[in-house]
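Dear colleagues,

As part of the handover before I leave the project, I'm documenting each prediction I ran so the next person doesn't have to rerun anything. This entry is a single chain, and its sequence is reproduced below.
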Amino acid sequence: MVMASDQPLQSVVRDEHLLLSPPHPSKVPMKLWDEQPPLTVVHYPQEYQAEAFAPPRGVYENDELRVEWQKMDGRQPFYHRNCDVDELSYQIAGERTLMTELGVVEHRPGEFSRIPRGVAHDNYGRAASHLLFYIPAPVAELVPAQRESQAVFPPFPGWQPAPANEAVSWNLGIPGRDITLFGIDEQQLLEHVHNDDRRLQVLRPDRSQDTTWLYGTDRVRIGLVNTVPGGERRYRRTLDADEIQYQANGHRTLITQHGVLDLKPGDFVRIPLGISYASVATEAGDYVSLLSRSEVPQVAKTSRTADQYSPERLAALTTEVHS
């Protein structure tokens, strides 16, 4: 596969055991199969656990994009305005009011939205968690919106205007890269919606499709992949992009040339460019997929690593699928 196409460049028949096993002995010096590091998983529980407000946790990051995980129960301590990136989010769990100069969105689990560069925003979460994607602007929506932000006053029950600050930041929203922090009139900021025809677009993937690509630039794609039990097992090798996957719902087994992983909701994994992989699901589920033309290293602590492939493990998976 290549990132910009939904059709394979070519499809070939493989011996699955040879695809996943160590190479045949060779007299030519090459990097040995067992020197390749196994895939790693980062996990954050989807079940809310109370704690004091904390900044988002960086998960993957390079010079072109940043992926974060955030949970919250209350307001964040300031409004935020990005200089260089569009800020995309995926709601994992709980309820979140997204307040911006372009209106208010009540986010529900499974929804995506994009805050354009230069638009101030704040969040009010209730036992909530969400993913954040910071991508150089402009990012385009690839599917029609399910709904739009609205002019809502008060933005949530019990809201009262209060002294607030605004942080302006650059460099992918990385903590500590703020340019300036200053006081604002919160009501004045939110009432900007009446003078601007733009609205945030709320996207929800089509459940009838295997893959729904939602956002794109010439270097990044973000979408949602549905997985169902059964069906032919097919391997995918992306030739021009790293892939980051976030398991949103359901359990599945990821089989790759860098190991085998049982994935559960809350798991992140990165599949490097050129590595062949397939999924085996015993229940319906879905995962968020991000494709990037540049390598996106993991910056979060590893929760666990992939198991080494074995014929017995593969046979057990086949038995589970057909049972």
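The chain has a mean pLDDT of 93. The first strand starts at residue 40 and ends at 43.

All the best with the project,
I.
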